[in-house]
Specification:
With 127 residues, this protein is of the alpha+beta class. The protein has 2 domains: 1-37; 39-117, GMP Synthetase, Chain A, domain 3 (2-Layer Sandwich). It is built from 3 helices and 5 strands; from the N terminus they run βββαββαα. It has helices at 39-61, 97-105, 111-117; strands at residues 3-6, 13-16, 21-24, 69-76, 84-91. It is elongated and about 55 Å long. The mean pLDDT is 96.
Length: 127
């Protein structure tokens, strides 16, 4: 569970999972200070980190030696009826083409992507 707390600065929000903590904010053109990640950037980060970790987990399970893994995600919001998560993946290491292909296919199976592909609804909890 993530909990948030606003402070004195407009739109600056501290968020925590109870152990780690970070800041979210909006850009100055929207009235913020740009002192933290924007909400849509956090969505991009969630998918990018999940793909990265998931590929590494699958490589470890299949004993495929990999070096650094880099994932970039950009959320395109140009179309008012559609959102597109564009991503690119780079995997360092001496991999065969088959190993590289297998690892890149695992990106489709990362848990965050699976969550985003399902029907999503919102339900406020009673306090």
């Amino acid at each position: 569970m993530i909990k948030t707390q606003s402070g004195d600065a407009p739109y600056l929000v501290r968020f925590t999972n109870g152990t780690q903590e970070a800041l979210a904010d909006v850009l100055p053109v929207k009235g913020g200070q740009g002192a933290g990640f924007g909400p849509h950037e956090l969505m991009e980060a969630s998918l990018a980190t999940c793909i990265n970790m998931w590929i590494r987990m699958q490589a470890d399970q299949q004993n495929i030696p990999v070096g650094a893994i880099s994932v970039s995600v950009n959320l395109k919001r140009d179309d008012p009826n559609e959102r597109i998560f564009e991503y690119s993946i780079s995997i360092d290491g001496t991999l065969s083409e088959q190993q590289r292909t297998i690892l890149l296919q695992f990106a489709d199976d990362c848990p965050v992507r699976k969550t985003l592909c399902k029907r999503i609804s919102f339900a406020p909890q009673k306090t």
